[in-house]
Amino acid sequence: MNALRIIAALVVLTLATPARAKDAFTTYGDVARYALPASAALLTAVNRDGEGFGQLVASGVVTLGLTYGLKYSVNETRPDGGSHSFPSGHTAAAFLGAAYIHERYGWRWGIPAEIAAGLVAASRVEAKRHFVHDVLAAAAIAHVSAFFLVDHRDDRVTLFPMIGGRKPTFGIVGRIRL
Fold first, then answer.
1. What is the mean pLDDT of residues 154-172?
2. pLDDT at 30 (0 to 100)
3. Residue bearing the bigger pLDDT, 163 or 114
4. pLDDT digit string, tens, across residues 60-76
5. DSSP class of residue 161?
6. N or C terminus of the chain with fewer C-beta within 10 Å?
7. Are 108 and 61 in contact (CB under 8 A)?
8. Structural domains of the chain in order of their starting residue, each with its CATH number
9. Cα–Cα distance measured from residue 42 to residue 70, given in angstroms and rounded to the nearest whole number
10. Minimal CA–CA distance to 152: which of 103, 95, 93?
11. What burial class does residue 76 get, using C-beta atoms within 10 Å of its C-beta: 0-12 exposed, 13-18 middle, 19+ buried?
12. Could you give the CA distance from residue 57 to residue 73 in angstroms, rounded to a whole number?
């Protein structure tokens, strides 16, 4: 699976990046927040997908606009004492790329990208820069934006995260067309 190899290479390269006063996992999160949207744009360019590029930009504007609008209007204190914790900008950017890839190009490319974005979210919580609800909110914003603004190129298999219920319930919902 080429997608898995590309995402694995992304993880290895970012973990190999020299870190000053940071551990490798935090550095991964700092680098991959840019690498995932850049990968989405690169995948779009390689596929000569002008329509998809417009959808990536639209989803990015909504995702980052809503994320930073909330960040500066809510102004929640971070676990490390800093400000503007909710929602996580790193996580929003990473899931912007992953959700777009997943929606536009399908689960074969999407699942590895989602895992890479999930690692960004985990790195933010591990570094004590965000609470779990900060990263969950950012991932949800990116996915809702992509769900409504990005069209599938191949919609035979569709997977997306599900959050709901009276008790917090998390899972994956899917559809297969034969």
1. 62
2. 84
3. 114
4. 999 999 999 998 999 88
5. E
6. C
7. no
8. 2-176 (1.20.144)
9. 29
10. 103
11. middle
12. 24
Give residue 171's pLDDT band: very low, low, confident or very high (50, 70, 90). Answer: low
CA distance 151 to 49: 12
User: In the structure encoding, which two tokens stand for residue 83, read together?
Assistant: 């400000």
CA nearest to 91, candidates 136, 25, 150, 28: 136
pLDDT of residue 159: 60
What is the Cα–Cα distance from 140 to 96, expressed in whole angstroms? Answer: 10
Query: What single letter denotes the amino acid at residue 104?
Result: R
Which residue type is seen at 66? L
Q: Which long-range contacts (CB under 8 A, 24 or more apart) does 17-22 make?
A: 22/127
Q: Phi/psi at 83 (nearest 5 deg)?
A: -115, 170
Helix axes 50-74, 132-149, angle to 10 degrees: 150
Which DSSP helix (H) or strand (E) runs through 107? helix 107-126
- In tens, the pLDDT along 2-55 reads 555 555 555 555 555 554 546 888 888 888 899 999 999 999 999 899 999 999
Q: If you ran DSSP here, which 8-state letter would residue 163 be given?
A: E
pLDDT at 155: 59
Q: Where are the beta strands (DSSP E) in 44-92?
A: none
Name the DSSP class of 152.
-
